[in-house]
C-alpha cells in the first residue's frame, strides 16, 4: 500500500488538472495543502488568496505569517501540522466560495482527512467551520459563538475533536480577534498535550 505522502501527492495531482467547478478559470494554480502527512492536528481555512494562488502553498501571506507565529508560540512548526482549505482554487477577487463550489471541492478535503487521520481539526473562520460542523451534524450559528468550543464528533468513521477559531486574517483587522486567536491557541496546546497523554496510555 502507498504511504500517506504518496497518497496525498495523488490528490494534489488530481487538483492540478481539476475542472469540477468554475474556480480554476481565474486561478493560477490549485493549492492542495501541505504539512505532516500523519499530523495529529489539521488546520482548515476557507480558500487560497492571492499569495497562495501565486505560490501554490496555503497561508503564505500576512495571515499565514500570523498563523506561523501562533504555531511557533505553542512549540509547533508548520511541518508538524497539516494546513489545507475547503476549496483548492482561489475564488475571483477573494470572494467567498459558493455552495456548489464547496460541494464540488470538498471530496478532496475528505480524502485528505481519511489519509492523514488527524485527532484534532481546527476550522478557521466562518465558511470552514460551517462546512465542518454541518458535515458532522453539529449545530452552527456563527463563528463568534462556535470559536474556542470543543466538539467531539465522529467524522468519516473516526472520532475527532473539532475546535473552531477565527480566521487568522481577522487578526489583521482587529486586536479583539487577534487576542481571541491567541487565547484559542492556548487551548489547542492543552488539547495536543491531552491527546499525546492518551496516545501513550493506549499504546
Ligand atoms: S476549486 Fe476544487 S472543485 Fe473547483 S476546480 Fe479547483 S480543485 Fe476542482
Tell me about this structure:
With about 200 residues, this protein is an alpha/beta fold. The chain has a single domain, classed as Uracil-DNA glycosylase-like domain (Uracil-DNA Glycosylase, subunit E). Helices cover about 45% and strands about 10% of the residues. The protein has seven helices and six strands. A six-stranded mixed sheet has the order 1-3-2-4-6-5. α1 runs antiparallel to α4. The longest helix has 28 residues. The protein is globular and about 40 Å long. It starts with a helix and ends with a helix. About 40% of the residues are buried. The mean pLDDT is about 95. The chain binds iron/sulfur cluster. Iron/sulfur cluster binds next to α4.
Secondary structure: elements and pairs:
Elements: H1 4-16, E1 34-35, E2 41-45, H2 50-55, H3 62-73, E3 82-85, H4 99-116, E4 120-123, H5 126-135, H6 143-146, E5 151-155, E6 158-162, H7 175-202
Parallel strand pairs: 2-3, 2-4, 4-6
Antiparallel strand pairs: 1-3, 5-6
Helix pairs in contact: 1-4
Residues 15, 18-21, 23-24, 30, 87-89, 101, 104-105 line the site of iron/sulfur cluster (SF4).
Quick one: biggest sheet? 6 strands, mixed
Helix/strand-derived category reads alpha/beta
Strand content: 5-15%
The CATH architecture classification is: 3-Layer(aba) Sandwich
Element string (H = helix, E = strand): HEEHHEHEHHEEH
| End-to-end C-alpha gap | 23 Å
Tell me the name of the CATH homologous superfamily. Answer: Uracil-DNA glycosylase-like domain
Strand order of the largest sheet: 1-3-2-4-6-5
Condensed summary:
The chain is of the alpha/beta class.
Amino acid at each position: 500500500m502507498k504511504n500517506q505522502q504518496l497518497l496525498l501527492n495523488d490528490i494534489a495531482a488530481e487538483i492540478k488538472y481539476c475542472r469540477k467547478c468554475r474556480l480554476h478559470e481565474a486561478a493560477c494554480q490549485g493549492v492542495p495543502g501541505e504539512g505532516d502527512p500523519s499530523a495529529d492536528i489539521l488546520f482548515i481555512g476557507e480558500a487560497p488568496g492571492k499569495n497562495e494562488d501565486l505560490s501554490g502553498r496555503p497561508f503564505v501571506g500576512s495571515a499565514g505569517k500570523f498563523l506561523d507565529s501562533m504555531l511557533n508560540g505553542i512549540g509547533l512548526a508548520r511541518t508538524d501540522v497539516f494546513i489545507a482549505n475547503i476549496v483548492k482554487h482561489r475564488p475571483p477577487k477573494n470572494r467567498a466560495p459558493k455552495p456548489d463550489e464547496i460541494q464540488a471541492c470538498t471530496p478532496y478535503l475528505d480524502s485528505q482527512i481519511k489519509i492523514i487521520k488527524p485527532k484534532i481539526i481546527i476550522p478557521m473562520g466562518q465558511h470552514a467551520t460551517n462546512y465542518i460542523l454541518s458535515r458532522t451534524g453539529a449545530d452552527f450559528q456563527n463563528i463568534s459563538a462556535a470559536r474556542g468550543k470543543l466538539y467531539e464528533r465522529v467524522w468519516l468513521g473516526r472520532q475527532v475533536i473539532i475546535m473552531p477559531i477565527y480566521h487568522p486574517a481577522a487578526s489583521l483587522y482587529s486586536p479583539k480577534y487577534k487576542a481571541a486567536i491567541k487565547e484559542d491557541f492556548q487551548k489547542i496546546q492543552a488539547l495536543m498535550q491531552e491527546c499525546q497523554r492518551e496516545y501513550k496510555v493506549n499504546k
